[in-house]
Specification:
- Two copies of one chain form a homodimer.
- In chain A, a hairpin with a 2-residue loop joins strand 1 and strand 2.
- An eight-stranded mixed β-sheet of chain A has the order 1-2-4-3-5-6-7-8, sandwiched between helices.
- The first copy, chain A, is an alpha/beta fold.
- Helices cover 41% and strands 22% of the residues of chain A.
- Chain A starts with a helix and ends with a helix.
- The first copy, chain A, has one domain: Alpha/Beta hydrolase fold, catalytic domain (Rossmann fold).
- Strand 8 of chain A pairs antiparallel with strand 8 of chain B, so a sheet runs across the interface.
- Chains A, B: Pfam families: DLH.
- Chains A, B: Keywords: Hydrolase, Signal.
- Chains A, B: InterPro entries: AB_hydrolase_fold (IPR029058), Dienelactn_hydro (IPR002925), FrsA_esterase (IPR050261).
- Chains A, B: This is Dienelactone hydrolase family protein.
């Protein structure tokens, strides 16, 4: 048998395995500082066996709360072999599509230790599944969640890396340079009007001065929420300057994959 | 035979193929505007057959001229299945390790149509090999070469994409937005003192206003020449603020690969 044929056979076998793979998804109840939370766990039980100590990824939602969107990202990550946990920041079942309400909900966290603490509760929950190698855990977040993973990293949380997708760039605390363990990838919409030139300059200055290990990527034409396929619908409904950008979504997901390969190693 | 064993066998076969692959490298004489030039062609003749119409990559050197470094990049690209051509900008055999002389040589091109024209002669030479699909050609460049691939793209040259590694950000001509066909990837050292904040701001503004398809990536801790393993040696010899940055080199090469996959498609 020549090698191209053999390769086709292997590819066909691979496809069969993929079809047989069982994606486990389930809500997970937990609690933080008196608030009852409910996150969303996803993994592929063909790839992740009990005691396997796979790589884990924490997913922090946009300011809308734990909607279908972050759950779908957790499932995508699970298909790639990660144990993914979409955290709940607000409280079991608390979601909204009203920007005013979302602003109030997210507003509880900005500039406060609670932002990192609540995210940390999600991280601990992910590790408590027993499926994850504690040295191979990363966190990603969208918009508000992008800010949150930055805040979590700055506390020195045991993370190999964080990825912020169209996240607000929050001030870097003075002690963060000494504490931070995570490598940082920021995926930024070049036309994102929510992030000011001052915030961008402040972030870059703090990163360079603090000698953080970071990568900052700007995607042409992308505005706020560029990775969320529902962004156009929400924009229309709510009159917000947000939009899905398919090309930037694909590029940033690819950049996240390369980053994970570096900081988490290979998955099965 | 179970699939992991089958996969090992295929991988072993793959390794054999790779060992048997023959890298063709050769100098190619050409001429532009009365200057005799000599570029460097590289391809893998197991992957690239006459009439195969493979994807091509033009490589524009640093201001040192066509030294071993751009040739080694052409060879790396050839191993990946591309037909690579490291262009000569200065004239056959004209290389230097003296920054003063390099500045004079590169100075002939900055701000002048000759920069794109001389690079275009190299691009034409690559296409003239007959090995390349003219719709699947990209250009990469280092430092001076990074500026040059920008200049070449802005003339509307038939390129699917350009990648600038630690290139100076040259002014974007007014007519470039309408002419440019190439998607643009800029790989920038976040600590590169040769590129001013004004140049960065001007580039971003021009890209956004002109609705260019670009991606701009900053790599923490990387200074000028961060991809060149010889940079430290040159820095010591010549007292220049340049340095090799292994991590940023690897990351940017990975980002280039993803970019090429998007703009050039798969290689064999």
């Amino acid at each position: 048998m020549n090698s191209p044929r053999l390769l086709s056979l292997v590819l066909a076998l691979g496809a069969t395995v993929a079809l047989n793979a069982k994606l486990v998804t389930k809500p997970v109840a937990y609690e933080h500082a008196g608030t009852k939370l409910e996150g969303w766990l996803a993994y592929d039980d063909e790839k992740v066996k009990p005691g396997a100590k796979a790589a884990g990824v924490l997913v922090i939602p946009e300011w809308w709360g734990l909607t279908e969107y972050p759950k779908s990202r957790a499932e995508q990550l699970a298909k790639m072999g990660y144990v993914a946990f979409a955290a709940d920041m607000y409280g079991a079942g608390v979601v909204t599509d009203d920007p005013k309400r979302a602003g109030e909900l997210a507003g509880q966290f900005y500039g406060k230790p609670l932002m990192a603490e609540r995210a940390r509760a999600g991280l601990d929950q992910l590790v408590a599944t027993g499926l994850v190698d504690g040295a191979r855990v990363a966190a990603i977040g969208y918009c508000f969640g992008g800010s949150t993973v930055q805040a979590l990293a700055y506390t020195g949380a045991p993370l190999a890396g964080v990825v912020s997708f169209h996240g607000g760039l929050i001030p870097v605390p003075a002690e963060a340079a000494a504490k931070t363990k995570a490598k940082i990838l920021v995926c930024h919409g070049a036309a994102d009007g929510f992030i000011t030139a001052e915030e961008l300059a402040g972030f870059t200055k703090a990163m360079n001065e603090g000698k953080f290990d970071y990568q900052f990527i700007s995607y042409a034409g992308a505005v706020h929420a560029f990775t969320n396929p529902k962004a156009d619908e929400i924009a229309k409904l709510r009159g917000l300057p947000i939009a899905y950008h398919k090309v930037a979504d694909k590029r940033s997901w690819g950049h996240m994959k390369q980053f994970f390969k570096e900081v988490l190693g290979d998955t099965k």
